[in-house]
User: Fold this.
Amino acid sequence: MKSWDVIVIGGGIIGLSLSIELRKKGASVLVVERGKPGREASYAAGGMLVDSALETPPALQPLAIASARMYPEFVHELQVESGLHVDLRDQGAIVFPSPEHVHQRPGFTAADLASLVPAPLSELEPALADFNRPAFFLKERSVDPRALATAALEAAKHRGVDVSSADAVTAVNVSEGRVSGVATEKTSFLAPKVVNCAGAWSGRIPPHAFPTRPVKGQMLCLASPSRSLLKYVIRSPEVYLIPRSDGRILVGSTVEEAGFDKRTDVATIQRLYRAAVVILPELGNAKILEDWAGLRPGTSDALPILGPTPTPGYYVATGHFRDGILLAPITAQVMAAVIEGRNPDHDLAPFSPARFKN
Assistant:
């Protein structure tokens, strides 16, 4: 029976990125995905690469900054190896923070923020409504997660990663005290090392019940009246707007404790749409192209779970919550090091699965 060096459970951007990194190191890799690769949280994400101190948990910021810096090369490699275009934009973001958000982060005050906008908002984004509220500018990037995940899947296949789709893992198999592979709904696969990258479903796979939970987010996509209507990502407490290079504008997002329910509801989508129009009035006549919901993998402390488990050969990389797209490159790098028995370049102690043992 065929075996692999590593089995990766979950074909989202975290699992696919890790599979590519492991192949670069010479490992044979199988990705086992419960549905279609890249079609869960990765497909539903907005794609803002947020690494600012104002919006990132302090413990996570070193990884967030490192991963954001890796993005241009990360996307370039995926594009070259997949032959597909990934819409990585670096125009930046205009952020309207809530007063509470500012006060939660040392070193930021509402008065300071006004000086962080490089020009009057009417010059940066002429179509914006006239807001009399603090704002600041961040030189950050955004990416189209659907294009990113599709490119990652093709790049993984190009490198020789094997992929099994539409077959959920039901358990990680253990023999003589260590990992021997995985059991699925249809079959089983052999490997001495397994990595759980199953996102919101990570905690449902024995032998370890990782404390992840699905956190629902509803979003919609609008056809902009013109491709030049919005240049920057806009974030406010009410809604965020993410422009794509083809003229689409994404509007999001909710944060809902709704279990594994991925349905959208008309009232929520209309509320998001109205909030977008308040910020960008010209969207009042924009056509809604699509709405959807996704399930982010949340944890009790809003930090990912990264590292080895108590079972030899079994590792976990999950719980990225709203930062899975951002953290994909650095997660792949540090987890590949852990799986190979090397010390990663970053301290993973704050993200250890052992922090939940009590």
Q: What stands out?
A: The mean pLDDT is 94. The chain has nine helices and 19 strands. The longest strand covers residues 287-298. The longest helix spans residues 61-82.
